[in-house]
Amino acid sequence: xxxxxxxxxxxxxxxxxxxxxxxxxxxxxxxxxxxxxxxxxxxxxxxxxxxxxxxxxxxxxxxxxxxxxxxxxxxxxxxxxxxxxxxxxxxxxxxxxxxxxxxxxxxxxxxxxxxxxxxxxxxxxxxxxxxxxxxxxxxxxxxxxxxxxxxxxxxxxxxxxxxxxxxxxxxxxxxxx
Length: 177
Hints:
It is built from five helices and eight strands, in the order ββααβββαβαβαβ. It has helices at about 30-40, 50-55, 100-115, 125-130, 145-150, and strands at about 5, 20-25, 60-65, 70-80, 85-90, 120-125, 135-140, 165-170. Strand 3 and strand 4 (about 70-80) form a beta hairpin. The protein starts with 5 loop residues before the first strand and ends in a 9-residue tail after the last strand.
């Protein structure tokens, strides 16, 4: 499930001088877990245990400040040789609205291109964010692999309020650097 909600950071001060977007490291997952589970507690994304995140860390990209504090995260989950989902997208409240979510999505698009994928999709309650990045709203049923893999165990399965958005990344100009 994709969200770009705000995170109520436990830190008093969030350093935002220079933000870097990079591949997650296994040690980052201890800082990613409370961000994801904060939103999961509000029903905005699926919860993830430390064990799950440790297994999935290779899917993640993170935004870090100069002190290497995690400011945001997102993951690219591959479903087929042509299809992947942007998932677990979240940015801390102290840096929300500064373009960090967009930069994470751009990096995930770049990763999808390097994998020679064609379509990226997300399930979100904030479709406007994705529309600004070139995604279009589509029918959730377009992604049966997602529904079979994840949605069947979601507590919102029969009352899902998320909107599916997708983009053909083979048609995009390069916009990341």
